[in-house]
Amino acid sequence: MYEDDLTGQDVKNLSTNPSPENKSNIADKLGLLYGKQQLSSNAIKLAEAIFRIMVRDAETQVRQALSESLKKNKNIPSDIVQSILNDEDCVAIPFIQHYASLTDDDLIKIIDSNKLPRQKAVASRSSVSLNVSDYIVEKCPSDVVGTLISNEGSHIGDNTFNKIVEKYDQNDDIKTRMVYRSELPVLIIEKIVDKISSNLKKHLMLHHNLPKNMVSTLVDEIKETIALNISEDFSTDKQTEEFVHQLYKANRLTAGLVIRALCLGDLSFFEYALVYLSETPISEVRKVLFNSQADFMIRNLLRKAFIPKSMFPAVFSALKIIREIRFDCGRSSRKKFGHKVAERILTYIENNDELSSDDIQYLISKIN
After folding, report:
1. Taking 50 as the threshold, does the pLDDT of residue 231 lie above it?
2. Three-state helix/strand/coil letters over the chain
3. What is the per-residue pLDDT across 161-206, written as a single tens digit (0 to 9) for each?
4. Element (H, E) at 137
5. Nearest CA-CA partner of 145 in 113, 169, 170, 168
6. Does position 344 have pLDDT exceeding 80, yes or no?
7. Which residues lie across from 128 on neighbouring strands?
8. Higher pLDDT, 218 or 25
């Protein structure tokens, strides 16, 4: 439709041919045309006159079509905006969700209406300000807060996240939605990490930028779960491989993490880490690691896996200790075995340069 097509006849047609279909079609065309910059001031006034007629139309279909056609425009006259906002849900909600020119005051007024579908529409807008997000957390029920958290376009400040954690401490749905946000403050992660399931911890570790120590702690917790979750159909070896593969795909399989695992006696994790980091079959990795007379083969494998040369002494020390004591602890004493390996590692390595200070503190913390 061109500007020349917008005439007084369009207004007349609303009276001479007032079918809902005809009026809805006109609403669609006018909504598309209204946002074009080349419209003259007279054409804009004429279009707005038609809008004012349509917002009072008895047919819901017509008003709904008008709302849909105008929701992506900007700077619509306030009386038309208010008429749409005050209409029934099927008319108002698409407009609430998509009309960009609604102010924070407008949105807070909608929240104060205490109508759940409209509150959710505010929470799911493409952009929700810090103030509106905070107001939603203060005033709205958990369903709306959950919608807000799942909306990547919502801006949520640290203080607001703190309110969410305190208010919904026992709400698993809210915690899940928080974990699945693409960005979450580390301080908030620290507050919820002990209150979420292993699967959520795994998602946090794989998809969020966490501090090194937190990643290591989460890996230890998940490995412990894997070790205890033995079934005939799904062995711990298979689970370990899948977990290591997930870490590898998420770029979390760092040399430091791999060496820490080995220094806690987790040989299976170390083996599969080398599989993915060096692109070497598990049978070959095990063959090399169990050949205590072929240190040069182990060194070559570590180089292929891009393990820093400075970490080689720690690897050889850990492997030697694991070979010596692997049968000293019962199969059910995984933690005891890990502690014993860590203790021997710290005693065995006289030159602390072989492990970073962070790694040493980490091993000490695990023993304690």
Report:
1. no
2. CCHHHCCHHHHHHHHHCCCHHHHHHHHHHHHHHHCCCCCCHHHHHHHHHHHHHHCCCCCHHHHHHHHHHHCCCCCCCHHHHHHHHCCCHHHHHHHHHHCCCCCHHHHHHHHCCCCHHHHHHHHCCCCECHHHHHHHHHHCCHHHHHHHHHCCCECCCHHHHHHHHHHCCCCHHHHHHHHCCCCCCHHHHHHHHHHCCHHHHHHHHHHCCCCHHHHHHHHHHHHHHHHHCCCCCCCHHHHHHHHHHHHHHCCCCCHHHHHHHHHCCCHHHHHHHHHHHHCCCHHHHHHHHCCCCCHHHHHHHHHHCCCCHHHHHHHHHHHHHHHHHCCCCCCCCHHHHHHHHHHHHHHHCCCHHHCCHHHHHHHHHHHC
3. 999 999 999 999 999 999 999 999 999 998 998 888 888 998 988 8
4. helix 130-139
5. 168
6. no
7. 154
8. 218
| Residue 220 banded pLDDT, cuts 50, 70, 90 | confident
For residue 92, report the phi and psi dihedrals to the nearest 5 degrees: -80, -40
